[in-house]
Amino acid sequence: MKKRILVTGGTGYIGSHTVVELQNNGYEVIIVDNLSNSRAEVVDSIEKITGIRPAFEKVDCLDYAGMDAVFSKYPGIKGIIHFAASKAVGESVQKPLLYYRNNLVSLINLLELMPKHEVEGIIFSSSCTVYGQPDKLPVTEQAPIKKAESPYGNTKQINEEIIRDTVASGAPIQAILLRYFNPIGAHPTALIGELPNGVPQNLVPYLTQTAMGIREKLSVFGDDYNTPDGSCIRDYIYVVDLAKAHVIAMNRIMDKKQKEKVEVFNIGTGRGVSVLELIHAFESATGVKLNYQITGRRAGDIEQVWADPSFANNELGWKADTTIEETLRSAWNWQVKLREEGIQ
Q1: Which PANTHER family did the record assign (predicted)?
Q2: Going by C-beta distance under 8 Å and a sequence separation of 6 or more, which residues neighbour residue 95?
Q3: In this structure, which of 91, 114, 123, 321 has its CB flanked by the most CB atoms within 10 Å?
Q4: Can you say how many angstroms the Cα of residue 305 is from the centroid of all Cα atoms in its chain?
Q5: What angle do CA 74, 76, 80 make, to 5 degrees?
Q6: For residue 113, what are the CA distances in angstroms to 28, 57, 61, 74, 104?
Q7: pTM value?
Q8: Mean pLDDT per 10-residue run, the chain (344 residues)?
């Protein structure tokens, strides 16, 4: 009997890639998504890749009764992977209350419903933003949690605390917090990838849209940071490598292999790449020249951060091993496919 997993935000960017990997590893997946930043057609694409159509329910995680009904409709859900959240740093500075409501209440609803429906474990989609600007690089899981630089980052910190407090209260819940660094790229089939509604808030979709001529030019926010070329440094991880980490984490919960009721893992490559390096790597990998300009710094951005992923490598047996060039090529292939389909 396949184990049932609920994936919130499962038609989104990271969610859809994770659903593919879960299905490829024998899980039965139920997707919940309100489609605020994704398309229902993603379910068709997941079916094309895997040969299996996941169940899909258009429900907002803020709707407690709606979520309760999903658990009742699909009895025996054993685990949750919670992606559903607003996720743009810049937007969160402009609309903090939207971010606090969406990101906190959705998790609280799930945690309240888990014991009622005998759901054993949850994997929470956290972020390296919880570290703020770290004192030491690369960042280990023991690095102090600093005051968040944005409301988005703060929601991730608070949600981690909500999970810890809930588990500490005696709730029958196991949890794994995966702190992602910067996911980029698309599935090698070019059937799923990152497709934000409206103007992209993240670097790589804006970059590929600029390369395609959809956007006039890419802005690099600041070249006066204390980094080798002055631009911000991040740890860019291939989205499929990231998705595979969720499958391994879910296996760990289902097989009762956790050493603590709440575990934390950094999910990154261990390599810092600057924005300008990324641009040059894209041009080199695709042969496409990019129109970009240096502009002023952006509110909420930290200077540099990259992971020490050795704990995840050793404890989970997981490793990100796709090159930055291969990853950027996959992002470009996805952008080309979108153009062929007339989507942008």
Answers
A1: UDP-GLUCOSE 4-EPIMERASE
A2: none
A3: 123
A4: 16
A5: 85
A6: 20, 17, 11, 13, 15
A7: 0.96
A8: 93 98 98 95 98 98 98 98 91 95 98 98 95 92 91 95 98 97 97 89 94 96 96 98 98 97 98 98 98 92 94 98 97 96 80
- Under 8 Å between Cβ of 239 and 284: no
CA 4-72-16 angle, 5° bins: 40
- What are the tokens at 311? 């704990």
3-state SS, 6-45, equals EEECCCCHHHHHHHHHHHHCCCEEEEECCCCCCCCCHHHH
Domains of the chain, first to last: 4-185+236-267 (3.40.50.720), 203-234+270-340 (3.90.25.10)
220 with 275: CB under 8 angstroms?
Answer: yes
> What does the pLDDT read at residue 344?
64
- Count of alpha carbons within 13 Å of 308, Cβ hemisphere only? 12
